[in-house]
Amino acid sequence: MTAPIADVLIPLALDQAYSYAVPPELTLAEGDVVQVPLGPRETVGVVWSLRDGAGSNLRRVSGRIGVEALSPALRRLVEWIARYTLAPKGSALAMALRLPEESRTETARIGVRATGMPPSRMTPARAKVVAVAADGVVRGKRALSLEAGVSAGVVDGLIDDGVLETVALAPERVAEPPDPDHPHDALSEPQAEAARALIATLTAPPPGGGPAGEGGVTLLEGVTGSGKTEVYFEVVAEALRRGVQSLVLMPEIALTAQFLDRFAKRFGVRPAAWHSGVGGRRRERIRAGVASGEVQVVVGARSALFLPFRRLGLIVVDEEHEGAYKQDDGVCYHARDMAVVRGKLENAAVVLASATPAIETRVNAERGRYRRVVMPERFGGRRLPEIRAIDMRAEKVPRGRYLSPSLVSAIAETNARGEQALLFLNRRGYAPLTLCRACGHRYQCPNCSTWLVEHRFRRALVCHHCGHAERRPEACTECGTFDNLTACGPGVERIAEEVAATFPDKRVIVLSSDFPGGAERLRAELQTVAEGGCDIVVGTQLVAKGHNFPHLTLVGVLDADIGLTSGDPRAAERTFQLLQQVTGRAGRGEKPGRALVQTYQPEHPVIAALISGDAERFYSEETAAREVAGLPPFGRLAALVISCTDREAAEAHGRALARVAEPPPGVMVLGPAEAPLALVRGRYRFRLLVKTEREIDLQSYLRDWLARGPKVRGNLRVGIDVDPQSF
Ligand code: ADP
Ligand code: ZN
Fold first, then answer.
1. pLDDT cut 90: percent of the chain above it
2. Distance from the CA of 589 to the center of ligand 1, in angstroms?
3. How does DSSP assign 671-723, residue by residue?
4. Is the Cβ–Cβ distance between 45 and 63 less than 8 Å?
5. Which of 154, 257, 395, 530 would bridge 150 by S-S if both were Cys, CB 3.0 to 4.6 A apart?
6. What one-character-per-residue DSSP string does 309-357 give?
7. Cα 193 to middle of ligand 2, angstroms
């Protein structure tokens, strides 16, 4: 006898869907979210395919769950990511389901309430449910069973018994609809032209009739302060008029706060924000609102890519070059690249916005795979900051101090004019290394191969990789002598100390991601800076990007050489982007800005390009160097990171893998070597690098290779990172 069989993909690290029989009373469709038995318990899964077959020996699907089904496009995105990253399909699915939080408290449109009928029989479990339901309508059966602390079956039994009944609920509103025609500043002519070019790519037809665009990807490359945000707001406005949803991706939560205010100014209301800081219940409501189409614009971190949009018409990836878009544990995916994939699957237009695009993106634009819209001038005739190097070899800086006399006098002049200065150092904490002058002992993390960073604020030595923290000792833990511990090198806290000593009557704000008070405090501080309520800002990369500080006219980069010395081939690109971004904070308001860059190597190509303002030249040289080396985007790269608490086991596994690598022509396998961070959280790490020519199917090669490799045992893990960001 044949009956419907559902192949259900479960959001765990599994590649295969499991088959279940569909009970006759249940009608399922592909994409439905269901509850199924798995081993001794019940779990949530998604119907991946349906077929007929002899399913009599299979376990049965327990029921459908009241969350929106996964659309075909979203299921294809899951498949795509799993194939590309070599992650198990179930792990990719987990990102789209965002379990467990959501499944536990479903977004129910169906409420449950008591009918007033007494139960035919009473049990302790039933009594608990009846007591909870007596308080009124409960949103969802699962919510009710969870609140009562009983299994879902008890609630179902009471419904069958007529004690409870289900009622349809009006959806809760999560976000007021943005008004595309809310009064706002008019675009300048260059902005309007850029907006027109982007609007022309929207695939939804215009309301008054007329031709629709063909979608695809457009790079919006505009210098800092060119007004890119207002440009893509105009595209969002047009998407609203055409009745399609928009997703704006941001690399960091810190950027989102200011963005929400700007959005509200343009559209009258704030959009729905989606990131890890958004709590359980609100998450579900956004998810449901996105699925129903009620939520028209979402701004979010990379995970927003997996929301079940009903009719997605536009994806904007702001600051598309940002490394934060890469998730580098679990499923290692790049949100910018996946946004391009999702855009294609949804037939939505994709806009990648940046002042300093990734080399990959530039190359894609040059080769005609992406369109390119350029905004070479700042908005309103404002000038880009003048950038000058301070050659530290020629400056007299006392030991233990980091501000050059040239920078100090520039800060003083700036403040004297009533303007703000920003001092940038990409290093959190007080000092990156603590050393005992008597015995030479250096304080290292017990779990990781890194130095502990002194945080004077917290009076602790902290590991930035695993979070390990210990009190800064009074006496050296090694030799026991007092007063010999020395802070080596600067972090932002130390710079703030020097600034306070040098400018005792100035208002100083320190902005770093690990400052106490969290997102709210950060938001308030950023606001203070924006309103001109401080004279000097000292900050890490947190302040480098995206922010708009109208009173800021001087940017001082304290150590432009950090990052240039690492062996990573992307170091130059990354440093160039970061320095370009941070110097671009200067002079965005009415007054012109300038930037001073402290360096020991002013002739370095990155610094030279920054000073000359010749970004094109930097990009073309860097692109040429990548091409010669066969590095992305001209070749493909993947990293296998083998980690284990047992160092020898990790290394042995790496060697065994290398022995069966059998690279065909066009493929190179390097290693195993100790990973750049050889010990993290108590796990030793070895790395194999795979470099292939562009035409090679990297994923197939990796899959075949890993299948030949030794079995993964114990706590050993093989992490696969396709397109690693640092290598
Ligand atoms: P970008 O993102 O390209 O660095 P922004 O979008 O932040 O630039 O714009 C830079 C500055 O110019 C901001 O202060 C912004 O408010 C202002 N601005 C941009 N477009 C307009 C406009 N059309 N009218 C008035 N001010 C604008
Ligand atoms: Zn550590």
1. 70
2. 9
3. EEEEEEEEEETTEEEEEEEEEEETTS-HHHHHHHHHHHSPPP-TT-EEEEEES
4. no
5. 154
6. -SSEEEEEEETTT-GGGB--SSS--BHHHHHHHHHHHHT-EEEEEESS-
7. 50
Closest residue by Cα to residue 601 from 450, 312, 390:
390
Q: What is the pLDDT of residue 109?
A: 66
Atom 18, ligand 1: residue with shortest CA distance: 227
CA distance 217 to 201: 8
- Is the Cα dihedral 655, 657, 670, 664 positive or negative? positive
Do strands 485-488 and 433-436 pair parallel, antiparallel, or not at all (unpaired)?
antiparallel
Rounded Cα gap, residues 684 and 681, in angstroms: 8
In contact, 281 and 305? CB cutoff 8 Å: no
Token code pair at residue 21: 């029989």
- Complex confidence, ipTM: 0.98
Contact 202, 314 (CB under 8 A): yes
Tokens of 375: 């905004």
Question: What is the pTM (predicted TM-score) of this model?
Answer: 0.86
**Nearest partner of 325 among 355, 302, 342, 350, judged by Cα:** 302
Q: Look at residue 232 and give its three-state secondary structure.
A: helix
CA distance 146 to 472: 45
Q: With a 6 A CB cut-off, is 225 part of the ligand 1 pocket? A: yes
Decide: 588 in ligand 1 pocket, CB within 6 A: yes
Q: If you take atom 24 of ligand 1, which residue's CA is the nearest one?
A: 185
Write out the two tokens for 275. Answer: 């990131």
Q: Is the CB of 230 under 6 A from ligand 1?
A: yes
Q: How many residues does the chain have?
A: 727
What is the per-residue pLDDT for 160?
A: 86
Q: What secondary structure, in 3-state letters, does 132-165 show?
A: HHCCCCEECHHHHHHHHCCCHHHHHHHHHCCCEE
Atom of ligand 1 nearest to the CA of 375: 3
Tell me which H or E stretch contains 488: strand 485-488
Stated as kind and residue range, the H or E segment containing 51 is: strand 41-53
> E strand or H helix at 511, and its extent?
strand 508-511
- Nearest one of 376, 371, 403 to 390, comparing CA atoms: 403
| Residue predicted with more confidence, 400 or 187 | 187
- Gap between the Cα atoms of 252 and 322, Å rounded: 9
